[in-house]
Amino acid sequence: MVLPRNVLTSLATLGSAIAETSYLPYQVRNAGVPVGQLKNISGIEMYISYPPNRNSSTKALLYVTDIFGVPLLQNKLLADSLAANDYLVVMPDLFRGDAISVEEQEAGLNLTEWRALHPTSEIDSIINTTINYMRSDMQAARIGGLGYCFGGKYVPRFMTSSGGLDLGFIAHPSSLTEQEIGGITKGISIAAGTLDGSFNSSAKVRAESILAANNVTFQTNLYSGAPHGFAVRVNQSIPQQAYAKQASFMQAVTWFDAWL
């Protein structure tokens, strides 16, 4: 049966409305209104997204953001999408109100000067405080960490034998060193893009070699046509980019489902 054009249009409109107002398992949301809550914990703003059926066995995820931080809509929606898959998600403000806006980046903001204002020691301290809060106040027995771009450097730093994370996922990490990869002792999943200048296919292969040599449980996926930032911000009109974002989200969720 062939449906009239007006019926098809109505169905498409209805589908878009559903996509913007509800969350489905394994489906990353790209538009709509965030449903999480902002809380100030020990002087740190945290965006917290709760699963629909939270109980004592709920597992928790620490979301370590890119340079756009908590204010970026896509970061909040991604956290909410993870929560919809039965995870308690906590996303701390790593930059204490000084996250970069997309407009500032496009205008050519000096990232070297900005990074100097947010040294590794400061970011480590904020992450430590967040993990401690999740362990104590939230009573999270196991915590997985997700790191995107800027945050992709920091999740591995907390996956050493004495680190506070139990499992990790990183996508298109920036400034990640081989020494930091070599310190990983917990399972990690990595999403890389062929068009990412910060972590390309060669860097992925090198990471695999280091992880394999250290007998670490790992998974890596390489997405064709995916630029830096693809797991968070993409041009939805470009099929390869839209696919990479959705597929990397599924990669993260299935990884945590299996091992956390």
UniProtKB/TrEMBL annotation:
<feature type="domain" description="Dienelactone hydrolase">
    <location>
        <begin position="47"/>
        <end position="258"/>
    </location>
</feature>
<dbReference type="Pfam" id="PF01738">
    <property type="entry name" value="DLH"/>
</dbReference>
<dbReference type="InterPro" id="IPR002925">
    <property type="entry name" value="Dienelactn_hydro"/>
</dbReference>
<dbReference type="GO" id="GO:0016787">
    <property type="term" value="F:hydrolase activity"/>
</dbReference>
<dbReference type="InterPro" id="IPR029058">
    <property type="entry name" value="AB_hydrolase_fold"/>
</dbReference>
<protein>
    <recommendedName>
        <fullName>Dienelactone hydrolase domain-containing protein</fullName>
    </recommendedName>
</protein>
